[in-house]
Amino acid sequence: MEKLRILIVDDEENIRHMLSILLRKEGYEVSAVGDGEEALKSLLAQQWDLALCDVRMPKMGGLELIDAVVERDISTTVIAMSAFGNREMAVEALKRGAYDYIDKPFKRDEILLTLAKAEERLQLKRENASLRGGEADGVFQGLVGSSEPMRALFETLSKVARYKSTVLITGESGTGKELAARAVHTLSPRAQKPWVAVNCGAIPENLLESELFGHVRGAFTDATHDKLGLFEQAHEGTLFLDEIGEMPPSLQVKLLRVLQEGEVRRVGGTRNIPVDVRVVAATLHDLGERVEEGHFREDLYYRLNVINVTLPPLRERAEDIGELVRYFVDKQNKRLGTAINGVSAEAMKIILDYAWPGNVRELQNCIERGVVLANGPKIDASVLPQRILEGNDELQQLFDSDELSIKKMSADLERILIRRALEKTGGNRTHAAKLLEISHRTLLYKIKDYDLETVGVE
């Protein structure tokens, strides 16, 4: 177990100084504040394993701080500190939720022993939580993989979850961006607070402002009552803004103001409402390019991109495919009550050779289909989707053919690229048009010409 992160809370500077020196020498990560109000701000903003807290302080005393920690379900373990002979205060601290207490003046060995016991307790709690989660090796908050890119991703998510900093998650469609965002929330001090998610590209522009910020009665024709926006619903928790690159420019400036000031104003309202929300955003676009193109505000991009987490596409971690197949087979067996025992050798070779433009989501859908249609104890090649059976050979067959007509070859190549773009974007034609660098209208005509209306639509 890593050394504890300890917050010292005491209004006496010499006590803070002495404890900081002692604990840093023992290898702990330490910070110190002078009163309970500052401590509470720090506990809400960061993940602290332990707080050494004096019971008597100005502004907010130790007992009030313990009450706030319990009320807000902050995971930090609190150890009270009280002057020798003031045992009643120490006992009261234990009753309110402190783990232990230490008498002043301190004895070095007593402090270190108390911390050692707290560390052992935290280790047991984390082991028990891991057992209750039931996640196998290579599975992290629903994300699956043991490859180097995934191990690095899991470590990054664990680190950034501790802090309130805004996170921007990037990656292709189907790589698991929402799972990564949920992991940030679940592993954070806000885990027991609201998790609210919205797809910025799925809500019409004229409704998105009300959805995010709320409205007051009479703000527009259908506003028959006051409505809480998603920011207010996510107060003290996490708001996940999926497909942030699709947010209309008119709302980008309002989102920026909320991130800067920590306040929202409902549509039609006249007062600002404070909100404490950790924002996690996701996009499959290169937001830097969208900034250069003038489609996304540069100042909002930098405000969102405080911490960037990129999810690798499946083709860049092919060594995880076998593990993912086993995971999805087990998952579908439990969900559907089936007893499929993996995939055949032939089917696995086809799966490993396929490029997976739809990434993990496409693989999951493929395995679910295989479990449902399997004719025996294993998924065989006959029940794999036709696009996967043909997928990797299609371009090679095109170039290996004896066809020399530029017109016909261009049409075949165009059909293949359009289908791949639709598969990669899950059928989202707006995104596919951008990937293909053609207009949305042109894409619609070509989809009809090539009979690709259902491609990418699950």
TrEMBL record:
Q: Which GO terms describe its molecular function?
A: ATP binding; sequence-specific DNA binding
- Keywords carried by this UniProt record: ATP-binding, DNA-binding, Nucleotide-binding, Phosphoprotein, Transcription, Transcription regulation
Which Gene3D superfamilies has this protein been placed in?
1.10.8.60, 3.40.50.2300, Homeodomain-like, P-loop containing nucleotide triphosphate hydrolases
InterPro entries attached here? AAA+_ATPase (IPR003593), AAA_lid_NorR (IPR058031), CheY-like_superfamily (IPR011006), Homeodomain-like_sf (IPR009057), HTH_Fis (IPR002197), P-loop_NTPase (IPR027417), Sig_transdc_resp-reg_receiver (IPR001789), Sigma_54_int (IPR002078)
**Keyword Glycosyltransferase included in the entry's annotation:** no
What domain of life does the UniProt record list for this protein's source?
Bacteria
Protein name, as recorded: Sigma-54-dependent Fis family transcriptional regulator
State the organism of origin: Bradymonas sediminis
